[in-house]
Amino acid sequence: MTDPADILLVDDDVLAQLAVEDIVDQLGHRFSFAPDGESARKALAENDYALVLLDRRLPDTDGLLLAPLIREETKTPFIVLSSLDSPTDQALGLGMGAIDYVCKPIEPVILSARIEAGLAARRQSREQTQLSVGESLHLDTRSRRLSVAGRTETLSPTETRLLVCLIRHIGRPCDRMQISMAICGREWVYGDRTIDVLISRLRRRLRGSSAKIITVHGLGYSLIEDG
User: Fold this and answer.
1) Residue 105: cis peptide before it, omega within 30 degrees of 0
2) Integer distance in angstroms from the first to the last C-alpha of the chain?
3) CATH architecture classification, 6-128
4) What is d(CA 168, CA 117) in angstroms, rounded to the nearest whole number?
5) For the domain bounded by 134-225, which CATH number is listed?
6) What is the structure's pLDDT at 2?
7) For residues 167, 227, 173 and 75, what is the CA-based torsion angle, rounded to 10 degrees?
8) Contacts of residue 181, Cβ cutoff 8 Å, sequence gap at least 6
9) What is the pLDDT of residues 176-213, one digit of tens each?
């Protein structure tokens, strides 16, 4: 059995608060809630949460405007929990860094499974914060610090997610759809050059390392160890 985790719900809906509290309690975790964006910011500054459940329609803000704080500053995974259930809304939430998007009304069995999956992913990611390729490339995924060929640089969040994707599939090609889902949680759209720009940046950062990013024509990109 895993240790109890601290879970924060950001939602002003009293019925949702009661429902989620019951679910979290049954799973054996600890529940907290914030009814608006301001109180959520305060709670996140004062506590270390394992997972955040984030509503979109808050009294003082769109919940997604909290995403940069949650994802990049506190490094906490979050699940959007919202009645905004269109494909566009779901793609927006995932694109802002949510690890999942659960539509209201709340289905206890579904939300329970998503919470446990989110916590499991967090445990796994914490166990795998140090990634290496050979002796010349080392990446700390938590701090986003890349050590390569005697240099140390800080990657952007998107560069970090891309490099993690390539390292975890080392020697195998990753196509654009796979990379797009890994770095921004959405499907790749034809004509979008974001991936090409990021690949170019990473190639420059990897200069002097035995790790190389190659283009596999018709398949995508692959990280290989050269020599």
Assistant:
1) yes
2) 44
3) 3-Layer(aba) Sandwich (3.40)
4) 20
5) 1.10.10.10
6) 65
7) 10
8) 187, 188
9) 888 888 787 667 778 788 888 999 999 999 988 888 99
